[in-house]
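ok so i was messing around last nite and threw this chain in just to see what happens. nothing serious, just curious
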Amino acid sequence: MRIGVVFPQSEIGGDVGAVRAYGKRVEELGFGHVLAYDHVLGADPAVHQNWSGPYDVNTTFHEPMVLFGYLAALTSLELVTGIIILPQRQTALVAKQAAEVDILTGGKFRLGVGLGWNKVEYEALGQDFTTRGRRIDEQVPLLRRLWTELSLSFTGEFDQVTGAGLAPLPVQRPIPIWFGAQSAPAYRRVGRLADGWFPQVSPGPKLAEAKAAVDEAATSAGRDPAALGMEGRLSWQGDPEALADLAGQWREHGATHISINTMNAGLRTVDDHLAALETAAGVLLRPGM
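result:
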């Protein structure tokens, strides 16, 4: 089971020195990957009355693809979007950006994607929130073609490519696409289309039920469920042994990867986040884990 960390998007601020220190120290501690969330814009609660989203205009978000270009120059970590809100972005541009990150990391990149929930963000990016499910179904096969074919033509409901292609192509052909999933339609989409997935439930009966739904959808699509990766997320609460126990539960449920999230734990500085990760590394990266 591969062990990484969640980049503390909403708590690291805009100081480039903090970003640099974080990436370098995570690698020194022995973690294998960094996963970053995505939001291009935050809504202003003063304008959008009764706003109930978990993030708003005051919440810090570094743009993942640009961030990863920077981290690729500083570390040899695998870099993971968890997740890019794919339907609100141009498919060909995502393909180009992902290919570039894959090249800069030497093939250590996973593109995690999802539908998103923020209508305000979709509107500002010029995309239709109501068609996002159909759009992502079309985008994923097109991305794979863009990463593996020198020239292609494609006509779909949302995208058209006429005799065009990317250069240079990525190292991984195609780049692995992972899905965030927390509903029955999403589980079916994972089984049909994904290389791996990020469950939004904790280990236990709900995760077992979700995994069974993913496996069934994969089998129905003629795919091998055992070939799908699964990454669990562990929230740091200050108790390293509890963290190790939760990691073991994820392993028992078949997780191939886990990542440690230090946000929302009362940590104030990048040094605080790194101190927590150092403690976590002491139990998670020890022999036998």
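not much to say yet. The beta strands are 2-6, 33-36, 78-85, 109-114, 152-155, 160-164, 177-181, 196-199, 229-235, 257-261.
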